[in-house]
Specification:
The protein is globular. By secondary structure, the chain is an alpha/beta fold. The N terminus and C terminus are likely disordered. Helix content is 44%, strand content 12%.
């Protein structure tokens, strides 16, 4: 790998605070069972969101926190849940006491794994309730009795309506990534769940979101008990440990530049973002064709396949992962050295989410963005959110690596090809028609797509232009009469047989 040019290194980190605070977990008077799990997880000092949230949440107060992924918010609410449940004495036996709602299955699975690790000494039984996993088995686990339920909205509502999941014992509820839940269309589901829980003053609520938008704040005002608002500025999170670089590049040159970046950089794991599912398929195959070990993950992949890909990415079997924004939720993998925005995100907030996948837990990382003519118009909104301009690097000619993969056919493109071929078949059919039939596209627009007129209509219509010119008005009247006669023959015959029928009626 070539040495990195000096211009690639940003000095923006120098003016930002450290990722970890001086507050230790031992200062928070946590139970020994919780402290043991935290210590085994390798945590000593709190992150900013943990240092500000835990004193409030451990006191039993509601919290609405604004923080990005990778800031330690998951550990913040898990420590609160374990500590508070250990102190409870009025629990209903066999019923869940804590509910954690996440927007995606991947994120729910990540929370589940972290909960089992941090809470291994607490003795609590934790259940994961998400789609794509054995329905009957999850139902049996809930019937057996659990302490903490980690779920996505759809599956838990299904169990609730069947009487399998009971909410009367819930003492704590967590809504994680509330902004994403609303973006994915779960607002009605969330309101349904919150209405079925004990009253806001009978439970403790915690909500975390990347942004505290109006819609998110509406949830807090309606379903939370005077929450304490805690905010960690996005720029403090994203800049700390992340060297950001922007390339202005033509659309056709993005792939050669990407290949050049992968050849020049000393990377460990690379996460590449692209805006469309078809783009994920195309780019994955292109990278494989250029001897780059890549796999793609999209929202329509089967759940087992998605879990398998994520597991392989975590353990290093997959080095390069290509994903859309939706699929990226729940990608919480340590040691992602590089994040590459092959497409600039259409939503400025997603830029924060994307580059937050690297430089996690105080580590460093790099974020490269390729701004082409199609998506460069979103750059202004991204930089406005950051509060500064992303450092620009102009790639030298030798940075571009020739694509040697050849043509690629994706499933999406295949559908387009079939549609074109279908149009060609119709055109060939029209070309074989007789001269008298050829005016059909003008007279019957649907004929171009293969929808031909009724045989009866065809026989009743003059076939020559001369006939059309001779009696245009008469022809139109006759066609109208014939259509009425066809739809109601008995009614149409009555006036002819009895001209005085109007007077008699």
């Amino acid at each position: 790998m070539s040495d990195e040019p000096e211009s690639l290194t940003s000095d923006l980190r120098a003016v930002k605070p450290k990722f970890l605070t001086r507050t230790t977990f031992t200062e928070l008077n946590l139970p020994a069972e919780v402290l043991s799990g935290i210590s085994e997880a390798g945590f000593t000092y709190c992150t900013p969101i943990q240092a500000q949230t835990l004193p409030v949440s451990l006191a039993g107060r509601d919290v609405a926190g604004q923080a990005q992924t990778g800031t330690g918010k998951t550990a913040a609410f898990l420590v609160t849940i374990f500590t508070r449940l250990l102190a409870l004495t009025d629990r209903e036996p066999g019923l869940p006491a804590a509910l954690i709602v996440a927007p995606t299955r991947e994120l729910a699975n990540q929370i589940y794994e972290e909960a089992n690790f941090i809470g291994r000494h607490t003795g609590f039984k934790i259940a994961q309730v998400v789609g794509g996993i054995d329905y009957q088995r999850q139902a049996e686990i809930l019937k057996e009795g659990v302490d903490i339920v980690i779920c996505t909205p759809g599956r838990v509502i299904d169990y609730f309506k069947q009487g399998i999941f009971k909410t009367s014992g819930i003492k704590l509820v967590v809504i994680d990534e509330a902004d994403r839940l609303l973006d994915l269309g779960f607002e009605k589901d969330m309101r349904y769940i919150l209405k079925k829980l004990p009253r806001y003053d009978k439970r403790q609520s915690m909500l975390f979101s990347a942004t505290l938008s109006y819609r998110v704040l509406e949830l807090t005002y309606e379903y939370m008990n005077l929450p304490e608002f805690i905010s960690i500025a996005p720029e403090e999170v994203t800049v700390e440990g992340v060297d950001q670089v922007l390339f202005h590049v033509g659309r056709e040159q993005k792939l050669p530049l990407l290949l050049g970046i992968l050849a020049r950089e000393d990377w460990n794991r690379v996460l590449i973002f692209i805006n469309t599912k078809a783009g994920v398929e195309w780019l994955t195959q292109k990278l494989k064709g250029n001897n780059c070990p890549a796999e793609g993950i999209t929202g329509d992949l089967h759940q087992r396949k998605r879990f398998q890909l994520m597991e392989n990415f975590k353990n290093g079997r997959i080095k390069i992962l290509v994903a859309t924004d939706v699929a990226s939720r729940g990608i919480h993998v340590e040691d992602i050295s590089h994040v590459i925005n092959y497409d600039l995100p259409q939503d400025a907030e997603n830029y924060i989410h994307r580059i937050g996948r690297t430089a996690r837990a105080g580590k460093t990382g790099k974020a490269f963005s390729l701004a082409c003519e199609q998506y460069v118009f979103h750059l202004e909104a991204v930089e406005e959110m950051l509060g500064y301009k992303i450092p620009v690097v102009w790639a030298e000619d030798d940075w571009y690596v020739t694509d040697r993969s050849g043509p690629v056919k994706t499933a999406s493109r295949g559908r387009k090809v079939r549609a074109v071929h279908g149009k060609e078949r119709v055109q060939k059919r029209l070309a074989r028609q007789t001269p008298s039939e050829k005016p059909w596209p003008q007279k019957y627009p649907g004929a171009f797509f293969g929808f031909l007129p009724d045989k009866s209509t065809e026989a009743a219509t003059p076939s020559t232009p001369a006939a059309e010119e001779a009696a245009p008005t008469t022809r139109k009247k006759k066609r109208r009469r014939r259509r009425k006669k066809k739809s109601g023959p008995a009614d149409a015959a009555t006036p002819a047989a009895n001209p005085d029928s109007e007077l008699q009626s």
